[in-house]
Amino acid sequence: MSKKVTRREFIKNSGKIGVSAVVGSFGTSSVKAFSLFTADGDIAIVSGTDYFQNTIKAVEAIGGMAKFVTQGSKVGVLINSDFEHPGTFVNPDISIASIKMIFDAGASEVTMLQVVKEDYWKRSSLYDPYKDLLARLKQVDKNTFPAEFYEEDFVKMEYIKGAKALKYSEVVRKWIECDVFVNIPIAKHHATTILTGALKNIMGISTRKANVGFHLDSGVKNDPNYLAQCIVDQHLIRKSDLCITDATEFIINKGPSGPGDLIKLNKVLAGTDIVAIDSICTEYLGYEPAEILTNIKAQEAGLGTMDFSKLKIIEIEGA
Length: 319
Hints:
The protein is of the alpha/beta class. Helices cover 33% and strands 18% of the residues. Helix 3 packs across helix 4 (92-104), helix 10 (224-235) crosses helix 12 and helix 11 runs antiparallel to helix 12. The protein is globular, with a radius of gyration of 18 Å. The N and C termini lie far apart (37 Å). Residues 1-37 have low confidence and may be disordered.
């Protein structure tokens, strides 16, 4: 128990004094690093301050975007973007790099499954150079918080195979219909689930009514056990084909909206096992993977593994 407390306090203190020590001595202490670069890793972790280039390197290290997006594919992208304070939203350089790779791989259509406001893109110095590329994006215009159900944009899910808690949801139609689903979360704190990450990010594709049900339908407001199970159950409708996680700078408390204490690790992760990626990010936040209910329940549901030591993790020093 003392080890967990020490790690947690170490991370929190580093967020206040600067994290160069964390990157050097803690970082991904449990991650098995491979010194030789091969484009067949299960998960890639790229460190450095050029988030655009490092996102590209991360995806290349697991086989490249063409491994996931084929010519003519329709791609749905979910970005955790709708927050204002530092460390609460995905750095837009990461999102722009991801979109560039998707189009370069031959996607015929790329849709933002939750509305991404222009102000978000303008936070990036790359906005002007990639303005024309961003103009090609489609959006589910009705999916902006708090989203209401519209039949042309949402689907009512009254049966979810394998679900243990979630009996009803309203999800974005394009999420169901797209050929490829790319999940782009940030590894920040959340008041109820502790970690936001890739698993929690899935609530961005459902209506306010559905998400209120996640929080209330157990009969206990914000029951963390029920909320975690609903989150996992929603992933059973459709799995992420690719996850690109922002662990560059994120809040370690007062999430999800902040402002909170920041930690800066300058890391971008890419892979297909969202449980493993969230488990790695759990350690970045100062917790053990098995302390997070979404991790536990997602592994039980067969969505991935918390034991990422069994996977091939490629760590790269980027730009």
